[in-house]
Specification:
By secondary structure, the chain is an alpha+beta fold. 20% of the residues lie in helices and 39% in strands. The chain has a six-stranded antiparallel beta sheet. The model has no long low-confidence stretch (mean pLDDT 95).
């Protein structure tokens, strides 16, 4: 993963749900152009952060054998802006029935300071993690995101 958009994973229930957050730092490059006089986090990056969280859920559920790749957005609604200095709380739950082992569907909600930011439903396909990243490097990244590395 080249651009990690999840800064911390706070809790998870394998196969079911995961929570984490992303800090919106003013030093992030996109703020220079989105928008110069009123910087906001692009909605697509919020969507990508949720998709990455789904990848982490698939990874930990499969003992880092598989990952999730986003391939369809069912719905994306944005209710409020996230700006530099905000911590975007991410909550994700799996909503499919499990009938198709090669696909997953999710519902994500974001909040900033208790205010609803976005509601997103998406799905993706399950792929072998080894085709994307080294399993042990991903496992180490998981430990860092959980705050387990000192």
């Amino acid at each position: 993963m080249r651009f990690l958009l999840v800064d911390r994973i706070t809790e998870h229930e394998p196969g079911r749900s995961i929570r984490g957050w992303k800090n919106a730092a003013l030093s992030e490059d996109y703020f220079e152009w989105h928008f110069p006089e009123q910087p906001i986090v692009p909605g697509m990056l919020i969507l990508e952060a949720c998709a990455q969280l789904a990848g982490w859920l698939e990874g930990v559920t499969s003992d880092f054998e598989s990952w999730l790749l986003l391939d369809a957005v069912r719905s994306a609604r944005y209710y409020a802006f996230a700006v530099p200095g905000d911590r975007i709380e991410l909550t994700l739950e799996r909503i499919d029935d499990g009938a198709d082992a090669s696909r997953r569907a999710f519902r994500a909600e974001t909040h900033v300071d208790g205010t609803r930011g976005a509601s997103i439903e998406f799905e993706g396909r399950v792929v072998q993690l080894a085709s994307l990243e080294a399993r042990e490097a991903t496992r180490r990244a998981w430990s860092r995101l959980r705050g387990e590395d000192a």
